[in-house]
């Protein structure tokens, strides 16, 4: 492989299976069942690779293209976490290639007609916390395999068409099913149809207004805002307290916290931990 005939080839595969190839060569390259197209302006910053378990770092930059990585898909978060591989390739003979990076994209952003994404190496998951957390509140996520609670039925899930939206973050409904105020706080709003279909966001506030009206405020606006008429599903939230698990969800048998664990004040109390 000659230094004068080396090109870089990128393969990006989204979670939904869409796979795209890019190259900095002036002609398309093909290998591994992927065509690496030259016309999208994909480039990379200096690749920093460490030994051992240190995380590889780099940054991908490219021009937005309606038929490749579109601004709409970036706003919807559809490229976040996509699998990515990078090769050095001899463009005269693509069988002569070397894999130099394998990992995933972090959050993809866009500015001034271009996208930008930090790359995360294969060792990145090793930075995640492991093991059981001893805390009075539950360590499970509502509805996951540890919680085992099924968020189905009208008691814990409401489907309703959008009637009014402000800044893509505050939703108001003139007529809403009768739920306690705050029932959906810490829950999730998911878009079921329209241009934002498939997007989800966490609920910050759930306010019951006079006359059966409701206001749902999200922590962060959708990348693509739902419009009036789009149907959303809102699921109940959990504050991870033992009382909430028992009274709101009747799921205390699966509670993953330690509600009787002494608090920090107990550790400072005179005589704490002494015998007799």
From TrEMBL:
Cited InterPro entries: Phage_phiJL001_Gp84, Phage_phiJL001_Gp84_C
Top-level taxon: Bacteria
TM ranges: none
Signal peptide: none
One Pfam family it belongs to: Phage_BR0599
Domain Bacteriophage phiJL001 Gp84 C-terminal: 182-265
Protein name: DUF2163 domain-containing protein
Natural source organism: Paracoccus caeni
């Amino acid at each position: 492989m000659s230094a004068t005939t080396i090109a870089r080839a990128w393969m990006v595969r989204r979670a939904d299976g869409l796979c795209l190839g890019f190259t900095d060569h002036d002609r398309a390259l093909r290998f591994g069942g992927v065509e690496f197209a030259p016309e999208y302006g994909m480039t990379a910053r200096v690749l920093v690779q460490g030994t051992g378990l240190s995380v590889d770092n780099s940054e991908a930059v490219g021009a937005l293209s309606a038929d490749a990585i579109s601004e709409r898909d970036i706003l919807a978060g559809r490229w976040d976490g996509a699998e990515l591989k990078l090769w050095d390739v001899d463009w005269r003979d693509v069988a002569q290639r070397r894999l130099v990076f394998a990992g995933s994209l972090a959050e993809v952003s866009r500015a001034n007609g271009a996208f930008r994404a930090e790359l995360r190496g294969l060792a990145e998951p090793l930075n995640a916390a492991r093991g059981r957390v001893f805390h009075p509140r539950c360590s499970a996520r509502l509805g996951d395999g540890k919680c085992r609670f099924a968020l189905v039925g009208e008691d814990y899930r409401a489907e309703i068409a959008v009637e009014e939206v402000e800044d893509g973050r505050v939703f108001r409904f003139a007529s809403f099913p009768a739920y306690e105020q705050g029932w959906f706080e810490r829950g999730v709003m998911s878009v079921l149809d329209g241009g934002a279909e498939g997007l989800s966001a966490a609920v910050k506030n759930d306010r019951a207004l006079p006359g059966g009206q409701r206001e749902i405020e999200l922590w962060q606006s959708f990348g693509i805002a739902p419009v009036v008429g789009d149907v959303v599903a809102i699921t109940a939230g959990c504050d991870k307290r033992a009382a909430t698990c028992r009274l709101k969800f009747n799921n205390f048998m699966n509670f993953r916290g330690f509600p009787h664990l002494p608090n920090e004040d107990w550790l400072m109390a005179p005589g704490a931990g002494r015998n007799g």
